[in-house]
Specification:
alpha+beta, four-stranded mixed sheet, three-stranded antiparallel sheet
Length: about 190
Amino acid sequence: MGLPTATDLTEINAILNPQIGSVVFNLDDEEIYRYTGPTNGWQLSTDDQNASEVPLLNNVDVDGSPTDPTPNETNVEEVIQAIAPITSAAARVFYPPSIAIDATSTGVKTPIDLYQLYVDQFASPIAASDPINAPTIPVYNRNELYYYVTFADENVFGNPTTISIDGNGNMSYSIVNLPTDFNTIINVVFVVR
């Protein structure tokens, strides 16, 4: 799996029939763009969250001024509750580990258990920056995730695609044409329920 690339926005906008959720890396500005649908098209994918996205009625008084007779402060719990929807939404979407897909011949292939491949790799990393003190990578249960394929090479997987995923993360697929350069692209995304 990999992230498809385009040389500039013109090339990105020329992509025919993208699926909602498709992502592309723009080589021109070195940014990731995501397809949000026909109304808004390709959007720069950012996480530039700012104070306007946090719905607080009162400002947070960070200087703790004891001289203000009528402080208009927000307590810590109110701040946590206000930012929780933003941070939880950002942390709910992630890419699972890269996997190999058999595209050596055409036809129906053996289903791939995306969830099990994720558990196998996340639960047993082969290296860590701090192997003594680093915590284990958190792993979700199978029923705590939604499974998506956001992009697949239609020349290899068909148009409409031959890919389907069940609620347990088992992906079925067929190869309709062999990749021309012994390589193809498919992007898988997990979302926490």
